Amino acid sequence: MCGIAGIINGGSPGELERMASVQAHRGPDDHGVRWFPERRAGLAHRRLSILDLSPAGHQPMVNEGGSRWITFNGEIYNYLELRAELESHGHRFLSNTDTEVILAAYDRWGADCVRRFNGMFAFAIYDAPTGDLFIARDHLGIKPLYYIQRGGMLAFASEAKGLFAIDGIERIVEPDAVVSSLLLLWVPEPESGFSGVMKLEPGCHAIFRDGRLAITRYWDIPIQDHGRERSEGEYVEELRELLERAVRQQMIADVPVGAFLSGGLDSSLIVALMRKINGGTISTYTIAFSEIDKRMEAMPDDAKYAAMVARLFGTDHHEIEASSESNTLLPKMLWHLDDPVADGASINTFLIAEAAKRNGTTVLLNGMGGDEVFGGYRKQLASLLVERYRKIPSLLRRGMIEPLVAALPVAIGGRGIRPVRWGKKFLRSAALSPIDAFIHGFAYFNPEEMREILTSPLNAVPFRDLYPIARYHELAASVEKYPFIDRMTWLDTKLFLPGINLLYSDKACMAASVESRPPLIDVELVEFAARLPGKYKINGRVQKYLLKKAAEAYLPREVIYRPKAAFGTPIRAWMKRDLAAKARRRFTHPGDAARFIRPELPLRLLAEHGSGKEDHAHRLWGLYAVSLWIDMQKRLDAAPAADVIGEMA
Asked: Are 273 and 247 in contact (CB under 8 A)?
């Protein structure tokens, strides 16, 4: 709901003002700065008013005793219960905000207060008498928090761009981030796109004292703690109760609340629950594509299902069309995302949020997290199937199946062939162990291709030692004794969810000054799902099994059991038609990206993709976006962001 920033042991009021100003899109309704000259420290805030729209919600906010100040981004959904408990202990409140509840909770319980919060949050509390700073991020990483240390100075902000408003803090591209974005299209936490700039990990808080930052993990995703296994009916009933409570809590606001509606299971379920809870007007928003783009992408008609769900629940439905020109938003989105996140879904999200804002909707509920938590990704099922595939005799696999699939085209007559695309991707992982198939299933390039793409010395790093692969293996090793399904959902919730989906969801919405809330990763829901036996996540070939069973009380089977469709953009059509010439120019004349990326393989992939024999669309999009992002950073040092974005669009 807001943008926060702060400097401890350095800087100036002017720099703090700039840190907040560059994040103005996150909070256009109010702003504030509190500077403590005796310690060269300060907090800043940009406000998007959601609760208590009065001036009483102004930040930075001070506690009852006048000693502690807070700058806060997010929502605490159980703040009313906490407020009542704190009032019973004698605390008095001057506003109706959750911000004031956080301050009082910290006064009463110290760092342990975060264990009591159910919500999405990133905040900092400065203790003026001692000079200590306490920072915290929510359990799942819904709200971002970047920081950098320089000697005894610490600076933090909701977005990395806020840190570069400080004199002497440079935009230095992190090589690990380039490698990560080429491989995955995103950067696993705690690293960011910039050297020296880190993210406070989800479920962590920290104290900065005497020039040192001490980080503590206060919560982690539980794994394999099933307890007494109950009947399917009992699990379904509990899940329905948790879903209804999460949606009810997340609909609390003093501004209009709407929803993303793709027509898929997750977003449709949230809309159904919103209607059960609220009989008033609910605005829903979906993205639509042109017929030619849908044919090339071979994508299901999400807009048709979204319209059906909207009619079923009587919502005020809005359909936003993504035209071929929408790809020109990529530079703008790369600036807002900070990190080199090459997922076209950020463009969809921004277009929807922008339309919602024009329509007067300030808060949007979304279906983010359902696939990670409940086992809904194809790569999860594919990794389970790898073991079965490897039992087929090698002669049959290598002599017949694999050559046949390799020879098939991915498109005929301008129409994409989805089973062929899936088959080619599956076979690339089939020779690996299940856990390697899962980890490598994220990768858009194999080890040989990475050596060909990267410049020296990055191309000499063994594939397994590259940052994103090593990070996955590091965390996978910590849970290797648990069942495979549990390990996959744990890793996806731990890394994939905050690293890409929550990041682009937050920043693309905040680019339009809209708050996005994800009920499916309410912390109690996540803890419930993490403890489910694996068969309730993936049962045979039915993914998100228990969530689908729970949804049967609210949605028609046609929606629940429809083929899965990704929340994506028509990247294949764009790369085939609108972006082919731009990509060729960029790969031929890469600018600053030539420090990291060699052009030979990208140009070859572009030619193969154009012929229709191979589908390289997402790989080419990633290469194009990362190259653009690298070049953008150098230009941002010399020109205003608006000028750079305009030149690169």
From this structure: yes
